[in-house]
Amino acid sequence: MTRRLRRFVAVGGLVTILHLGLLLVLVLVIDASVPLAAITAVTVAAVASYLGHRAVTFAGDPYALVDHRPRAFALAVGPAALVDVAVVSLLTLGVDDPSWMRLVAAQVPALVAASVVRLLTYRRVLFAAVRADQRVRIERPPLTGDVRATVVVPMYREPDRIGPNLRRLRDSLAGPLGSIEIVAVDDGSGDATPDAARAAGADVVLVQPENRGKGAAVRRGMLAASGRSVVFTDADLAYPPEQLVELVEQLEAGCDVVVGNRRHPDALLRQGPPRVRELGSLVFNLVTHAVLLGHYRDTQCGLKGFRRDVARSIFSRTTIDGFAFDVEVLHIVEQDHLTLVEVPVVLDDDEASTISVLPVALKMVRDVVRIRRRSSAGRYALDLPVAEALSAADGVGSDR
Questions:
Q1: Cα separation of 153 and 155, whole Å?
Q2: What are phi and psi for residue 152, nearest 5 degrees?
Q3: What CA–CA distance (Å, rounded) separates 333 from 296?
Q4: Which residue in 86, 165, 337, 388 has the fewest CB atoms around it within 10 Å?
Q5: Which of left, alpha, beta for 144 (phi over 0: left; psi -120 to 50: alpha)?
Q6: Separation of alpha carbons 353 and 186, rounded Å
Q7: CA-wise closest residue to 276 among 338, 184, 349, 384
């Protein structure tokens, strides 16, 4: 990270010197007007910035999406360039023969103002570019297998309600989906939760030897799934199981990933989460901007679905065991340029969670920093093109 920062500062410094030097030469040597000189200097500096950061600072970095797309880069720096020219022209207005000191004094605040504007527009352009990519569906070969859909249910100390909930899950989905598989993953409960899941008819019950976190449990279940579509949902069925049908249908219609969104205009919150959890979720979504390029109104919804090959490709690379695993998953989705759609959900939150909000939030922020570092180090990169990687991933053996 320090090396990347040094490169950023070095390229930025050279571009700034080029910008200021060209402005001075055009005005003082060639005798060009200040507005024309400012427009020329900022244009040349923008091109130099694009080429320099692309070749030196952000080479191979998925976060630098704008710096790898000329049109998106232009949209991001365009408003900033206009501000730069306007400030320089305004501060030298009425001066027929400005000195180099006057030009430098005008250019410094212009650069500051332009930097602020660019920072504000940069993420907006990134959001639009990424989400536009995700809407373009890619033709992929149909998956084979007798099971239409697998539902992964991570469990932790649910001996009393996991049985009724798994039976409700099967009763709700067997009709509309036909062949389904329920993979229940116990996250080191150390009680009767696995036995209750077996008694309720779960097709596969996996037991973690110790409590590692929801991310670890979901990962193991995803890699063990045999359904053509794979969906995970929470053990308390806060999301009524009937809505899993829409996720499966969207996946079968050509989406790689479908995620629930509790903040969708059409979402229905019959009983929302406690206010403190809701506030924590909103704050955490802002923190995820350090990792995610696209704008997701709800990264932490516990209802997400994947094509089986996509699920195996993604979860074979995930490393986060805690609740921030959703962010890691979405980051890999962006990096692999997979298609994604958000759907509204119905939420019946019984507020029975025993999660301590502050400690969990701090761990999630720590994990977001880890995701950022691991991605910069190339930990999530594919050795093969995405299509080949998905084909290879679909051949991964199940962990049963």
A1: 6
A2: -95, 125
A3: 12
A4: 388
A5: beta
A6: 17
A7: 349
For the stretch 251-276, pLDDT in tens is 999 999 999 998 888 888 776 555 55
CA distance 287 to 249: 32
Residue linked to tokens 């920072």 = 119
Q: Which tens digits make up the pLDDT trace of 166-192?
A: 999 999 999 999 999 999 999 999 999
Which residue is listed with tokens 């602020």?
116
How much is the pTM? 0.81
pLDDT tens per residue, range 201-230 = 999 999 999 999 999 999 999 999 999 999
- Distance (Å, rounded) from C-alpha 268 to C-alpha 290? 29
Locus of tokens 């950023």: 8
Q: Are 155 and 163 in contact (CB under 8 A)?
A: no
Looking only at the bridges linking them, the beta strands covering 304-307 and 257-261 are antiparallel
Using CA atoms, how far residue 283 sits from 24, 324, 367, in Å, is 45, 13, 15
Answer for the pair 82, 35: CB distance below 8 angstroms, yes or no. no
C-alpha 234/C-alpha 165 separation (Å) is 10
End-to-end Cα, the chain, rounded Å:
39
Convert the chain into a string of H (helix), E (strand) and C (coil). Answer: CHHHHHHHHHHHHHHHHHHHHHHHHHHHHCCCCHHHHHHHHHHHHHHHHHHHHHHHHCCCCHHHCHHHCHHHHHHHHHHHHHHHHHHHHHHCCCCCCCCHHHHHHHHHHHHHHHHHHHHHHHHHHHHHHHHHHHHCCCCCCCCCCCCCEEEEEEECCCCCCHHHHHHHHHHHHHHHHCCEEEEEEECCCCCCHHHHHHHCCCCEEEECCCCCCHHHHHHHHHHHCCCCEEEECCCCCCCCHHHHHHHHHHHHCCCCEEEEECCCCCCEEEECCCHHHHHHHHHHHHHHHHCCCCCCCCCCCCCEEEEHHHHHHHHCCCCCCCCCHHHHHHHHHHHCCCCEEEEECEEECCCCCCCCHHHHHHHHHHHHHHHHHHHHCCCCCCCCCHHHHHHHHCCCCCCC
Give the residue carrying structure tokens 């306007």: 86
Q: Quick one: which of 324, 335, 250 has its CA closest to 281?
A: 324
Spatial separation of the C-alpha atoms in residues 174 and 142, rounded to whole Å: 22
CA 206 vs. chain centroid, Å, equals 28
